[in-house]
From TrEMBL:
Protein name, per record: methylmalonate-semialdehyde dehydrogenase (CoA acylating)
Biological process annotations from GO: L-valine catabolic process; thymine catabolic process
Enzyme Commission no: 1.2.1.27
Key words, A-Z: NAD, Oxidoreductase
NCBIfam families reported in the protein's UniProt record: MMSDH
Pfam families, sorted: Aldedh
Residues annotated as domain Aldehyde dehydrogenase: 19-480
Molecular function per GO: methylmalonate-semialdehyde dehydrogenase (acylating, NAD) activity
Enzyme class: oxidoreductase
Amino acid sequence: MSTLTTRITHLIGGRPWEGAAERTGDVRNPATGAVTGRVDFASTSLVGQAVATARAAWPGWAGTSLAKRSQVLFAFRELLNARKHEIAALITAEHGKVLDDALGEVTRGLEVAEFACGIPHLLKGGFTENASTKVDVYSIRQPLGVVAVISPFNFPAMVPLWFIPVAIACGNAVILKPSEKDPSAALAVARLWTEAGLPDGIMNVVHGDKEAVDALLTHPDVRAVSFVGSTPIAKYVYETGTAHGKRVQALGGAKNHMLVLPDADLDLAADAAVNAGFGSAGERCMAISALLAVDTVADELVEKIKDRMSKLRTGDGTRGCDMGPLVTGQHRDKVAGYVEAGAAEGAALVVDGREGDFDGGEDGFWLGPTLFDHVTPDMSIYRDEIFGPVLSVVRVQSYDEGLDLINANPYGNGTAIFTNDGGAARRFQNEVEVGMVGINVPIPVPVAYYSFGGWKSSLFGDTHAHGTEGVHFFTRGKVVTSRWLDPSHGGLNLGFPQND
Ligand code: NAD
């Protein structure tokens, strides 16, 4: 096994950082377990340097015309498209997800860059002529300044791309703090901005852990924070950032349910459950982890799912497998612990992913697709976000019982209903307390021109990612009331202005 490791360092002011880090973290290939990189961790003072660099560069970019800004966006889009296979390979090497899936993630991120190319249109304000006699009123949206993006391990390229193209198009300077577990893809994407013609200092990357995050959350020159990660950290980021006067959107964890009614196409539902339960080894915030099956069709559905699972190949993401390893050994052990707990708590273990043949290195972080049936809401496999390839079937008697379970759940990221009854589907979209809803679509990730975000403990703050909500988040509104006096006007009047 090779012992060569790559140094992964910060990108500040358009250049790789040349200092020596006091702390570093190991980056591993999850399919082999080998350490392949060492990532520098930023200290508080280094984060301060990055913020100062961004702050100094920002006014020039904020003052750059929309025509020039959108040209940079178009150039970035072209570069990202041209390099998407390289970026996907970096994702697979550090995250473990299979290459096709990694490419899909880059493509979904690319769509946000395409959306942001339309920034001149998106930033158009309103104008009212003659709101009062010879008085015009208009609204404008202006950039915030330096903004921070803090991202999780599970979509190392796509999640930063949910925010960065929009933030930059709106005229902000960005500091990205990617996950320390798989930092290379985000760094490679960040480098493309310089090639696209973005001025140095507008796109910066600092790596690290809590120290770097805390430095961003408390720095007075960071105006806004976009965070994606687990719920406890999202809550912490939201509370700390807002306490320091920042605008914060903090997207948290999930426990996504799929409700299958008796009139659903069960083959379609079984395909969907397998794809959405085990794609990316269940390490997706939109993964389905609880399948609510109405009892009359549950046996048949479980059989169909089991049959499909027997055809899945788990292994190294570069070898054409269906599912890759989990991201770290620690995470694999945690997920395997849930499998043990589910069995001990009395759920029926239909497929045990701990037993399996894995097409990858002996020391890879392997766990195969796992299926539980007869799961009840008091079990830990139902209550907790497992974030692994474990699908739990909960049997319900009716639509209402399924809906009640979904609405009682503390999370509200994504959900799906499978049915051929348009009335039931319409009721569901109206009654379910979840931010993103699929009707016969298991992973309803909104397209870039809509906004991505959950409800309840899946989002702290009120603004979702990308789409017009993203533009709103990265700008401040201003309303101008304007009167150009002609010489006939004048005189004193201390009363409150009234329209006439
Ligand atoms: P995480 O919360 O462990 O880490 C996210 C980011 O926070 C990383 O950059 C990490 O370095 C930083 N961080 C970790 N601990 C910290 C601490 N104590 N203080 C300050 N910063 C800290 O999440 P993860 O394991 O990387 O990602 C998986 C989680 O993200 C899952 O819960 C998943 O549901 C969630 N997620 C949510 C969405 C969404 O859109 N709602 C999307 C993707 C992932």
